[in-house]
C-alpha cells in the first residue's frame, strides 16, 4: 500500500500549505514594499530608519493577538526576522558588497609601491629587521636585500611593544635611517605607524605605511591611513576574524586609499610550539573574497627560524602574493624579536632555496 493511500488527505494538505506559502510570499512582498516606502518618507524627513518603540509596539500587539499553536516566543522570533529583513531593505546601501570585496571588483588590485607592482602575479618579498636600531644595522640588511634582488625593505621605528619597559623604537630617527638606506640601495621602505597624527610626517619617509596586528582595529589610525597617499600594509589582528580583517581594510579603502596589502601573520591559539598559529586557510579565503594582494608574515606567525622555508612555500602555494620576514645582521643582540629573526647568511640561503623551488626568479624586483 502506497504512502498516499494510507494518508488520502496528505496531498490535499500539502496543496493547502503551498497555497498559504504563496499568500505569505505575496503578503511579505507587499509588506516589504510598504517598508521601503516608509524608508523613503523617513529619509526625506531625516528620521532614523530604526524605530525600536514602533517595533516593540508591533511585537506586543502580535503576541497579544497570537491565536496559537505557535508560542509567543516563536511569534516574536519569526516577526523579528521579518522586521530585520525590512530594515535591511531600507538600508540596502550598507548591504552592498564591501569595496574590498571581489564582488565589487573581480580583477586583482595591483598595488604600486612607487614603480614596483605588488600583486601582479609575481611574488613579492618584504624583508628587514624587526626594529631599526642603527644606520649600520639597516645598511647591512639593505645591502643583502639589494644583492638578492628584493626591493621592499622593512624596519620598525615605532614599536608597539607588549611591555612598556621594552625597546620602543627610534621613532622619526628610525624612519630617517630607513629612508637613507632605501635611497642608498634603491629600495622601497615599509614601516609601522602607530599614531594617526604621525601618518602625514611618516609619508615623507616611507613608501608603505604598515599597520600592525595590535592596531588592526585602531579605527582612527585606519581612517588616517585611508587619507594617506602611500600604500598600506595591513596586518591581521592576532585575534581578528577574516571578516574583521576585511572590515579593517574597508576602513582604509572607503576613505579613498585603494592601495592596501593584507598580511596574515598568525592568530593566537593554545598552541605553544609556534609563537602564533599561521592561518593558512585565510590566504585562499582572502584571495577569493577580496581583490587586494595578500602576504604572509613567516616570522611572527611562527616565531621560529627552522620552519620558515616550508611555511613560505606553503604560503605561496596557497596563493599568497608575497611573504614578509625579519632579517637582522646579528639577531642574538637584536633589541626586539631576537629569537626569530634570521641573519644575513640564513637569508641568502633562504632566497636561494626559494629560487630553487621556483617561487622566486633570479632577476627579481619585488621578486618576480
Ligand atoms: C611587525 O611586523 O613589525 C610586527 C610588530 O608584527 P605584528 O604587528 O604582526 O605583531
Ligand atoms: Mn618583530
Automatic annotation (TrEMBL):
Q: Which InterPro entries match?
A: Aldolase_TIM, Chorismate_mutase_GmP-bac, Class-I_DAHP_synthase, CM_dom_sf, CM_II_prokaryot, DAHP1/KDSA, DAHP_syn_2
- Any one GO MF annotation of this record: chorismate mutase activity
Q: Does the keyword Transferase apply?
A: yes
Please list the GO biological process terms of this entry: aromatic amino acid family biosynthetic process; chorismate metabolic process
Coiled-coil spans are: 10-37
The alphabetical list of record keywords is: Coiled coil, Transferase
Positions of the Chorismate mutase domain = 4-94
The record, for PANTHER family, names: PHOSPHO-2-DEHYDRO-3-DEOXYHEPTONATE ALDOLASE, PROTEIN AROA(G)
What name does UniProt use for this protein? 3-deoxy-D-arabinoheptulosonate-7-phosphate synthase /chorismate mutase
Q: Which organism is it from?
A: Desmospora activa DSM 45169
Its taxonomic path starts at: Bacteria, Bacillati, Bacillota, Bacilli, Bacillales
Amino acid at each position: 500500500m502506497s504512502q498516499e493511500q494510507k494518508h488520502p488527505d496528505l496531498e490535499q494538505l500539502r496543496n493547502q500549505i503551498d497555497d498559504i506559502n504563496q499568500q505569505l510570499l505575496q503578503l511579505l512582498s507587499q509588506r516589504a514594499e510598504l517598508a521601503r516606502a516608509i524608508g523613503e518618507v523617513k529619509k526625506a524627513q531625516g528620521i532614523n530608519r530604526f524605530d525600536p518603540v514602533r517595533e516593540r509596539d508591533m511585537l506586543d500587539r502580535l503576541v497579544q493577538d497570537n491565536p496559537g499553536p505557535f508560542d509567543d516566543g516563536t511569534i516574536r522570533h519569526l516577526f523579528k526576522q521579518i522586521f530585520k529583513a525590512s530594515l535591511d531593505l531600507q538600508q540596502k546601501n550598507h548591504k552592498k558588497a564591501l569595496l574590498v570585496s571581489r564582488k565589487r571588483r573581480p580583477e586583482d588590485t595591483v598595488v604600486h609601491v612607487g614603480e614596483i607592482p605588488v600583486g601582479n602575479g609575481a611574488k613579492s618579498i618584504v624583508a628587514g629587521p624587526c626594529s631599526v636600531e642603527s644606520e649600520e644595522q639597516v645598511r647591512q640588511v639593505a645591502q643583502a636585500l639589494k644583492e638578492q634582488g628584493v626591493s621592499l625593505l622593512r624596519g620598525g621605528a615605532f614599536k608597539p611593544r607588549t611591555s612598556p619597559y621594552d625597546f620602543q623604537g627610534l621613532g622619526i630617527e628610525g624612519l630617517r635611517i630607513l629612508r637613507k638606506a632605501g635611497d642608498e640601495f634603491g629600495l622601497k621602505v615599509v614601516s609601522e605607524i602607530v599614531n594617526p597624527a604621525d601618518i602625514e610626517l611618516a609619508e615623507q619617509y616611507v613608501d608603505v605605511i604598515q599597520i600592525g596586528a595590535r592596531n588592526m582595529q585602531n579605527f582612527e589610525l585606519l581612517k588616517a591611513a585611508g587619507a594617506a597617499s602611500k600604500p598600506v600594509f595591513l596586518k591581521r589582528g592576532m585575534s581578528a576574524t577574516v571578516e574583521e580583517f576585511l572590515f579593517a581594510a574597508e576602513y582604509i579603502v572607503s576613505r579613498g586609499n585603494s592601495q592596501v596589502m593584507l598580511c596574515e601573520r598568525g592568530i593566537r591559539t593554545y598552541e605553544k610550539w609556534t609563537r602564533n598559529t599561521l592561518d593558512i586557510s585565510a590566504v585562499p579565503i582572502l584571495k577569493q573574497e577580496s581583490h587586494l594582494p595578500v602576504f604572509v608574515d613567516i616570522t611572527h606567525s611562527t616565531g621560529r627560524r627552522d620552519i620558515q622555508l616550508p611555511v613560505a612555500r606553503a604560503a605561496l602555494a596557497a596563493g599568497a602574493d608575497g611573504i614578509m620576514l625579519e632579517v637582522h645582521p646579528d639577531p642574538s643582540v637584536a633589541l626586539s624579536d631576537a629569537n626569530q629573526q634570521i641573519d644575513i647568511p640564513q637569508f641568502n640561503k633562504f632566497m636561494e632555496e626559494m629560487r630553487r623551488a621556483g617561487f622566486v626568479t633570479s632577476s627579481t624586483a619585488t621578486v618576480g
